[in-house]
Amino acid sequence: MVSVPTPPLLALHGVCKRFGIVEVLTDIELEIHAGQVVALLGDNGAGKSTLVKVISGVAPADKGVIEWEGRTVHIRRPHDARDLGIATVFQDLALCGNLDVVGNLFLGREIRSFGFLDEMEMERRTRHLLERLTRGVPDLRGPVVSLSSGQRQTVAIARSLLGDPRILLLDEPTAALGIEQTTEVLDIVDQLRDRGMGVLLISHNMGDVKALADRAAVLRLGRNNGFFDVNTTSHEQIISSITGASENAPRRVAHQEAGW
């Protein structure tokens, strides 16, 4: 009996995005499978952040097809992405520095009991979630502004997980972190993959990509410029695709290769 391949959680086919007369993304292909970390790579201006905004519903695609578990869906606003199970942690984290950790996690989705805020239940859930992610749980009632950069990144990731998403989009999560804090964030991403989540990781750090990602998708000037198995592709080959130094770098179109 021939087994039927499991469709990816998320697949993009021919996705285009235009701002005014400028087409920022052209015919983008991308797949993210459960239990897989896909690194989204490209030079500044390649379209990485725009693609994240398309997937998260912040800047809906103008053309193309988006599929969720093999069925066509429409992501026109952030609410649509969240309903599907897509969560996003943007580079600026969007945390309120004057609020504590609990307040940041439940901002806009507070738990109430008999018409009053249930602070004990929100704190319990916050502590439980953070203890699953990290060994060093920060002070839950201190202002977020007092936390380290790594702790704030952890809080932002924890907030994104409240709705039990199946895909997490991370925009440069280690860009402002030291070595120890970077290691902790990468460990968290590794945990999420082991739990079966799909992760799209935007990063300029090839060390992080090599250490963590299963696949790499390269954008160049708003177009696909290569799909790579990170474990079998050299650092130089991926960099060449990012910079355009070698237009003969291997390119594999998503629908022509199993898993892409």
Polypeptide structure, described:
There is one protein chain. The protein has 260 residues and is an alpha/beta fold. It folds into two domains: 1-85 and 165-260, 3-Layer(aba) Sandwich (Rossmann fold); 97-163, no CATH class. It has helices spanning 48-56, 78-84, 101-105, 119-133, 149-160, 179-194, 206-212, 235-243; strands at residues 10-19, 22-32, 37-41, 63-68, 71-73, 86-89, 112-113, 116-117, 167-171, 198-202, 215-220, 223-229. Strands 6-9-10-3-11-12 form a six-stranded mixed β-sheet, with helices on both faces. A four-stranded antiparallel β-sheet has the order 2-1-4-5, with helices on one face. A two-stranded antiparallel ribbon has the order 7-8. Strand 1 (10-19) and strand 2 (22-32) form a beta hairpin. The longest helix is centred in the C-terminal third of the chain and has 16 residues, at 179-194. Mean pLDDT is 89; it is low at 249-260. Keywords: ATP-binding, Nucleotide-binding. GO terms for molecular function: ATP binding. This is ATP-binding cassette domain-containing protein. Residues 10-246 form the ABC transporter domain. InterPro entries: AAA+_ATPase, ABC_carbohydrate_import_ATPase, ABC_transporter-like_ATP-bd, P-loop_NTPase.
